[in-house]
Design goal:
- A 5-stranded mixed β-sheet has the order 2-9-5-4-3, with helices on one face. The chain has a 4-stranded antiparallel β-sheet with strand order 1-7-8-6, covered by helices on one side.
- The chain starts with a helix and ends in a 10-residue tail after the last strand.
- It has helices at residues 4-18, 38-45, 147-154, 161-166, 176-186, 199-218; strands at residues 23-28, 34-35, 49-56, 59-65, 76-82, 87-90, 101-107, 110-116, 122-126, 259-263, 266-270.
- The protein has 2 domains: 4-135, Alpha-Beta Barrel (N-terminal domain of MutM-like DNA repair proteins), CATH 3.20.190.10; 147-270, Orthogonal Bundle (Helicase, Ruva Protein, domain 3).
- Helix 5 packs across helix 6.
- By secondary structure, the chain is α+β, with helices and mostly antiparallel strands.
Length: 280
């Protein structure tokens, strides 16, 4: 599932390639990915230019504005994108659409394909380019949340920290891959309870989470199955992973054997030496 780094890279590519370009058409092959309806999305967006691309957690919000040479120059429309498990965008000159391409955007003759094998992704018209009502339940972005707010949101909680870091209501953007990596660097066990951690440890978790996210962004995200960037290139952060997906292998820091545990129904990998279990 695309997490914050993958979504950020998609957003940057959209911004770099399409900002300022007019959307001349929208071909809909499967309307189920559009909300409230294909007709309303097409009516709101076609004829407008992409002015900006914003991101909050795992959500992108595209800001379209009317042509400044026309009467609609102050007429904005906002399209929120949630890629979920398998949503992808492609802008490739030789791209051949298959049965999983549900939308084709025409930006002044440049086709942009939206592909989603599982059909879980959604593109929805919203009323605000930063924090629309549709994501009011989502917490602050992991890269911008301030330390006092972070501590207030998580410091008193008694659930395992791994489960809480995955909870988008606390802070948005972290998924399974980057939670495992963040906890390893912070030397915190995935079953540790935030209420039992010191203020210094909580600060370290936040610091390491941001470090991992920024490093993953710089490496184009992580690819295990089908994530690629806007140009079809896979993310290469996989070779930087310390623990995720490496249960049974040696820790790269201390050579202990990495172990796996399930937390809140999700697999977790940790080093028993670098991340001692507080229950023991």
């Amino acid at each position: 599932m695309p997490e914050l780094p993958e979504v950020e890279n998609v957003g940057r590519a959209l911004r770099d390639c399409l900002r300022g370009k007019r959307l001349d058409g929208l071909q809909v092959n499967y309307g189920g990915v559009l909300k409230p309806s294909p007709r309303q999305v097409r009516s709101a967006l076609v004829g407008k230019r992409l002015a900006e691309v914003n991101r909050h957690g795992k959500y992108l919000i595209l800001d379209f504005i009317g042509d400044p040479n026309e009467d609609r120059n102050e007429d904005h429309a906002y399209l929120m994108i949630h890629l979920r498990m398998t949503g992808q965008f492609f802008i490739l000159d030789d791209y051949i659409a298959d049965q999983h391409v549900h939308l084709i955007f025409d930006f002044e003759g440049r086709p942009v394909h939206y592909r989603d094998v599982r059909k879980f992704g959604r593109l929805e018209l919203v009323e605000d380019p930063i924090r629309p009502a549709a994501i009011a339940h989502v917490g602050p972005d992991m890269l911008s949340v301030r330390l006092p707010e972070w501590r207030e949101r998580i410091g008193h909680r008694k659930a395992p920290i791994k489960a809480l870091l995955l909870d988008q209501k606390i802070a948005a953007g972290l998924g399974n891959i980057y939670v495992d990596e963040s906890l390893f660097l912070a030397r915190v066990h995935p079953l540790a309870r935030p209420c039992d951690l010191t203020p210094t440890q909580l600060k370290e978790v936040l610091k390491r989470a941001r470090q991992v996210l920024r490093l993953a962004i710089n490496h184009g995200g992580t690819t295990f199955m089908n994530f690629t960037d806007f140009h079809g290139r896979p993310g290469n952060f996989r070779r930087k992973l310390r623990v995720y997906g490496r249960a049974g292998q040696k820790c790269r820091d201390c050579s202990a054997t990495l172990e796996g545990v399930r937390v809140g129904g999700r697999s977790s990998v940790f080093c028993p030496h670098c991340q001692p279990n507080p229950a023991r």
